[in-house]
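Researcher: I've been going back and forth with a colleague about how Rieske domain-containing protein might be arranged in three dimensions. Neither of us has a model we trust, so I'd like an independent prediction. The organism is Mycobacterium branderi, in case that matters for your notes. Sequence below.
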Amino acid sequence: MTDRPKEIQGDAQWRTAGDRIQTLLDATAAGGAAARERAEQLVREVVELYGEGLARIVGTVDDPAVMERLAGDDLVASLLLVHGLHPHDLSRRVSDALDRVRPYLGSHGGDVHLLDVDGDTVRLQFAGSCRSCPSSAVTLELAVQDAIRAAAPEVSSIEVVTAEAESSVIPADSLLAKVRSNGGSAWHQVPDIADLTSGEVGGFLVEGTVVLACRVGEALYAYRDHCPGCDGSLAGAELRGAVLRCPRCHAHFDVVHAGGGLDDATAHLDPIPLLERDGVLSLAMPAEPLGAPA
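Model: Here is an independent structure prediction for Rieske domain-containing protein. You can compare it with whatever you and your colleague have in mind.
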């Protein structure tokens, strides 16, 4: 694995700081209720102290361009949100988050439209050729969930409206229910995938799962190493343009559009979300590979 710049390592570290703080608080429970209460009070005092300092700093900023730069930094933006100092309202933050993830959705043949924001509920409509592809739907949900959670943690539910105007409310915490039912999912940094050249296919072992990564021009795509045509590995597969050819059964798949089968429309590869997070390419790997038999 290549070395990452210290600032990137720092961004990744701070992104998980909340989880580490919660783990430390949970550990204080071993000392009894009084110890836990004192630890929580300490955290509250520190948060309030730095919150007051941050509020005074923001109060001295009268240049909108400076505030935009602050709001554009993920770490600073998260602190501004905690203390109610973020310059953008909920609707603007959700819209900006979707704009950031929209190129990735497009790479999988999909898109998402923000219909409205009502209180802490966001109404979206997915579009594109991969709406009917189950594994692509999971890919889109992972990407959108991650973007919205980072930009607007106060969102409690996301209402997904179909093109036929049917709707279903999906609580934010269960947006990834299809993935969690297979044992959970977590992001793993895979900077080596960035070294692939255009037209190159590479295999990577990530958390015990072999992942097939492809580069088409400037874009990168990742799939589980499994051919639905012959139920075998795709090791040795050739990539011509956007078409991946299985070396065994010679089935063809469109890697740009969610791995759709070109010989059999019902067969498709299992895409794995591949996003740049904190400046590092990362994969969302389920505990049990997407598309694996139950």
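Researcher: What would you highlight for our discussion?
Model: I'd start with this: Residues 248 and 260 are 18 Å apart (CA to CA). After that, consider the following. The chain has three domains: 16-83, 90-163+171-181, 185-286.
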